[in-house]
Amino acid sequence: MGKYVIIIHGGAVQTDPSTIPPEKEAKLKAGLAQALHAGWEILHKGGSALDAVEAAVRAMEDNEDFNAGRGGMFTLNGEVETEASIMDGATLQGGAVSCVKLVKNPISLARAVMEKCKHTFLTAEGAQEFALAQGLPLEAPHYFKTEPQRQEWMEILQEQAVEHADRHD
Amino acid sequence: TVGAVALDQEGNLAVATSTGGIEGKLKGRVGDSCIYGGGTYANNEVCAASCTGDGEIIMLGALAHEVYALCKYKDLPIAEAVREAISMYADKLEGDRGIIALDPQGNFALESNTNVMRRAYRINDEEPFVDIW
């Protein structure tokens, strides 16, 4: 049996420690542990690295505490647009998607691009149509929008409004 | 952003990276997470790497591929390669950077220039490691 390893990240940021209260920290750690386990279990049973990384990332996409899938950042227009990629080190094949809305798990769409599409990268409506053709699960826009992200978006809009107010008579 | 790199029992490496992007981005903005060689890269011969942080600088620095290149052509161990990629062009490309990377022998690195990097790993059936700070 060969060595097997999985490593995950859920984002890096320079921040004031007080912005992450203990209960939030505990939730993040629980989310990381859950995602790690989803990938590790596959490796432990002899599954592929490709299946393991997809499973780990899917778990974080489903968890609103991480900036991917549900819980993704808002655009200035107030929408959630996601992107994802996956790459197989054995074959050097890859799949990537960007500007995706409504697709529950963008990483699985990226994998579908890798395995079932003649191209390696699809974006926007094309990616969306490919997801529909492949029968991947979709969600309504409100599924992706969480209250903390909405609050951050509102703050940005307010800052912009203040900036614009200074520029007009 | 979230990401994962893995080495399976057959010795194969893989990477996956996914994100909702940056706060207040313009509609249509593309970040590093979907860019091969930018925020994501895997090659069984050398390493698998997934990045997080400021997407614009990660793309411009081609950081995931930089880790690959430093290992392959400079023969650096994975930890040194990741450290060098994190600090590369820091004077010209300022911003948050975090990288996880793994080589075919199971050596790995988790580095960032930030005080928070949500991260976890597990080797074989050893105890898992999970941390944020």
Layout of helices and strands, plus pairs?
The complex is a heterodimer of chains A (169) and B (133).
Chain A lengths: L4 E9 L8 H23 L4 H13 L20 E7 L4 E8 L5 H11 L4 E3 H11 L6 H4 L2 H20 L3
Parallel strand pairs in A: 3-4
Antiparallel strand pairs in A: 2-3
Helix pairs in contact in A: 1-2, 2-3
Chain B lengths: L1 E6 L5 E7 L20 E4 L3 E7 L1 H7 L1 H12 L3 H10 L9 E6 L5 E5 L3 E8 L5 E3 L2
Antiparallel strand pairs in B: 1-2, 3-4, 4-5, 5-6, 7-8
Features:
heterodimer; A: 169 residues; alpha+beta; three-stranded mixed sheet; B: 133 residues; four-stranded antiparallel sheet; two-stranded antiparallel ribbon; 3 helices
Give a nutshell description of this structure.
The complex is a heterodimer of chains A (169) and B (133). Chain A has helices spanning 22-44, 49-61, 106-116, 124-134, 141-144, 147-166, and strands at residues 5-13, 82-88, 93-100, 121-123.
Describe this structure in words.
The complex is a heterodimer of chains A (169) and B (133). Chain A has 169 residues and is of the alpha+beta class. Chain A is 49% helix and 16% strand. Chain A has helices at residues 22-44, 49-61, 106-116, 124-134, 141-144, 147-166, and strands at 5-13, 82-88, 93-100, 121-123. In chain A, helix 1 (22-44) packs antiparallel against helix 2 (49-61) and helix 2 packs antiparallel against helix 3 (106-116). The longest helix of chain A is centred in the first third of the chain and has 23 residues, at 22-44. The radius of gyration of chain A is 18 Å and the shape is globular. In chain B, strand 5 (97-102) and strand 6 (108-112) form a beta hairpin. Chain B is built from three helices and eight strands. Chain B is an alpha+beta fold and 133 residues long. The model of chain B has no long low-confidence stretch (mean pLDDT 97). Chain B has a four-stranded antiparallel sheet, covered by helices on one side. At the A-B interface, strand 1, helix 1, helix 2, strand 2 and strand 3 of A face strand 1, strand 2, strand 3, strand 4 and strand 5 of B.
